[in-house]
Specification:
The protein has 227 residues and is mainly α. It has seven helices and no strands. Helix content is 83%, strand content 0%.
C-alpha cells in the first residue's frame, strides 16, 4: 500500500478506485499550490530584504499559476462530490480542500503585495534593518512545510504544529507596529517609508492567518474537530 493511499484512509490492497485516484490527485494539487506559495514568499523576501527589484515579477508569475490551479481544482472537487458521492472522512477531505483553496490563493496574493511594496522601497534607503520581518519569512516557510506535510500524509500533528506557529507571527507583527510608530513619531520624514512597512507587516500577518485557516480545515478533516 502506498503512503498516499494510506493517508487518505483507504485500506484496500486492490487497484485504486476512481474516488481514491481523484482524492490523490486533489491532494497533490493542494501540495503543489502550497509549494508555489512558499516560492512566492521567498521572492517576496528577496524583494523586501534584498531590494531585488526583479523579484516582484517572479512573484506575479507564481501567483498566476496558483490562481489557475485554484480555478481548475474548484471544478474538480465539486465534480467529484457530485459524481462519486463520498461519505465520512472522504467527504470531510473534499470539504477541507475546497475551503483551503481560497486561503492558499489569498496567501499567494499577500506574498505578491509584499513583493510589490518591496520593489517600491528598493528605490529609497532602508528605514531600518528588517530583522523581525526576516524572522516572519522564516516562520512562514516552516509553517508552509508543515502544512504540506499535513495534507500529503494526513498528519494531524503537523497541522497542529503549523497552526501554532501563527502565534509567533502575531507577536512579531505587534512588535514591528510598535517600532515603526516610534520611528514615525521621532522623525516625520520617515512616515512614508514606515507606512509602507506597516502595510508589509500587515500583509505578512494576514498571510499567516490564511495558513492558520488551512490547518484548521485539515484538522477538521482528520479529527472532525473545529478549532
Amino acid at each position: 500500500m502506498t503512503r498516499a493511499r494510506y493517508a487518505l484512509g483507504i485500506m484496500s490492497e486492490t487497484a485504486p478506485a476512481p474516488l481514491e485516484l481523484d482524492l490523490q490527485a486533489i491532494s497533490g494539487d493542494l501540495v503543489r499550490m502550497l509549494s508555489l506559495v512558499r516560492e512566492s514568499c521567498e521572492w517576496a523576501r528577496r524583494s523586501l530584504i534584498d531590494a531585488d527589484q526583479a523579484a516582484a515579477a517572479h512573484c506575479s508569475e507564481l501567483d498566476d499559476e496558483v490562481d489557475a490551479i485554484q480555478a481548475r481544482l474548484e471544478v474538480r472537487i465539486l465534480t467529484v462530490i457530485a459524481r462519486r458521492q463520498p461519505a465520512a472522512r472522504d467527504l470531510r477531505f473534499l470539504g477541507a480542500a475546497l475551503q483551503a483553496l481560497a486561503d492558499i490563493e489569498r496567501a499567494g496574493d499577500y506574498a505578491q503585495h509584499v513583493a510589490d511594496v518591496g520593489r517600491s522601497l528598493a528605490l529609497e534607503p532602508p528605514l531600518k534593518k528588517y530583522l523581525d520581518m526576516q524572522r516572519i519569512f522564516e516562520v512562514l516557510a516552516t509553517m508552509i512545510d508543515a502544512t504540506s506535510k499535513a495534507f500529503a500524509e494526513a498528519d494531524a500533528v503537523a497541522a497542529r504544529r503549523a497552526h501554532g506557529l501563527d502565534a509567533e507571527i502575531d507577536d512579531l507583527y505587534d512588535q514591528i507596529q510598535r517600532e515603526l510608530l516610534t520611528y514615525m513619531l521621532a522623525d516625520p520624514k520617515s512616515i512614508g517609508r514606515a507606512t509602507q512597512l506597516l502595510a508589509v507587516a500587515r500583509y505578512l500577518e494576514r498571510l499567516g492567518d490564511h495558513l492558520e485557516n488551512v490547518n484548521e480545515h485539515i484538522i477538521f478533516w482528520l479529527e472532525a474537530v473545529r478549532l
